[in-house]
């Protein structure tokens, strides 16, 4: 076995199947005509919350540790966000670059603001690429972390513009990688979270009262447009899949 390659390919490890570790594609994946990839030890470690540590008294501390392991230092955050604004933002402008960097300068995302941390992690997630049409182990771990963080904050009563933006980016990730029914469920939850926040309020006066400034109102309106586009895209996709019909 070549140096640095794990004992099994990513798909066999995930499904707990016996893998013969043959390169470039293991025998089982070849027979099933499935993508096959081998994560190496050079990749960052998978960071998935331990369910035993997610009791009510410790859940936030546990998630802070998981976030810190992924977020790393300020230079890593800068690299992530620069990649996002250089790529995804060009065709999905649902974040204000000015507002984002203004807030980034005033917080420590790995410790101070859970909803802002969720947004930063979602920005990194949506920029992730598959390998041989399959998600890498670190990407799957990051996906699970962001989903856990969003669910935890939701259960704790947190709903903010950053949370809605993070939700939308997760849905775009799910849509882009064909993760169903997760994308379908997420798209519906996005609409309800945005409505609860007042993103779709009728008049400009109501929006300014809700968000405090016209700059944030403009950002919120772009988020609402992105949510509607994502929801319609997911519905169109689901309606074309045999045995899965949206209503």
From TrEMBL:
A GO biological-process term: DNA-templated transcription
TM ranges: none
GO molecular function: DNA binding; DNA-binding transcription factor activity, RNA polymerase II-specific; zinc ion binding
This protein's UniProt keywords: Metal-binding, Nucleus
Span of domain Zn(2)-C6 fungal-type: 8-38
Cited InterPro entries: AtrR-like (IPR050987), XnlR_reg_dom (IPR007219), Zn2-C6_fun-type_DNA-bd_sf (IPR036864), Zn2Cys6_DnaBD (IPR001138)
A family per Pfam: Zn_clus
PANTHER family according to UniProt: TRANSCRIPTION FACTOR PDR1, ZN(2)-C6 FUNGAL-TYPE DOMAIN-CONTAINING PROTEIN
Protein name: Zn(2)-C6 fungal-type domain-containing protein
